């Protein structure tokens, strides 16, 4: 069984662990119907369209 040759320092260990919790900003794309920014693969909140089909009735 493999055994580490040297102890991993606290600084090296913490540097490795620190990158896990960082979050990316959510990706946004323009709605082809109304031009508003929306999350990809989701129904547009402002017009109610998804892939060119009206899924939710929104009153204008």
Task: Kindly list the characteristics that best describe this protein.
1 helix, 60 residues, two-stranded antiparallel ribbon
Give a verbal description of the structure:
- This protein has 60 residues and is of the alpha+beta class.
- Helices cover 15% and strands 13% of the residues.
- Strands 1-2 form a two-stranded antiparallel sheet. Strands 3-4 form a two-stranded antiparallel ribbon.
- β1 (29-30) and β2 form a beta hairpin.
- The relative contact order is 0.13.
Number of helices: 1
The helix content, as a percent range, equals 10-25%
- The pLDDT mean sits at 89
Largest sheet: 2 strands, antiparallel
Spatial strand sequence of the major β-sheet: 1-2
Question: Which value, in Å, is the CA radius of gyration?
Answer: 23 Å
Q: What percentage of the residues does DSSP assign to strands (E)?
A: 5-15%
Please tally the β strands and state the result: 4
Based on Cα principal axes, name the global outline. Answer: rod-shaped
- Low-pLDDT parts are none
The rounded distance between the terminal residues' Cα atoms is 68 Å
Give helix and strand order, one letter per element, not per position: HEEEE
Structural class: alpha+beta
Quickly describe the structure.
This protein has 60 residues and is α+β, with helices and mostly antiparallel strands. It contains 1 helix and 4 strands.
Write the layout of secondary structure elements.
Blueprint: H1 10-18, E1 29-30, E2 37-38, E3 49-50, E4 53-54
Antiparallel strand pairs: 1-2, 3-4
Family: Belongs to the bacterial ribosomal protein bL32 family.
Protein name: Large ribosomal subunit protein bL32
GO cellular component, one term: large ribosomal subunit
């Amino acid at each position: 069984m493999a055994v580490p040759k040297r102890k991993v320092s606290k600084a090296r260990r913490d540097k490795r662990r620190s990158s896990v919790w960082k979050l990316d900003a959510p990706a946004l794309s323009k709605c082809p119907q109304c031009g508003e920014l929306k999350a990809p693969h989701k129904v547009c909140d402002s017009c109610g369209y998804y892939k060119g089909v009206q899924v939710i009735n929104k009153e204008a």
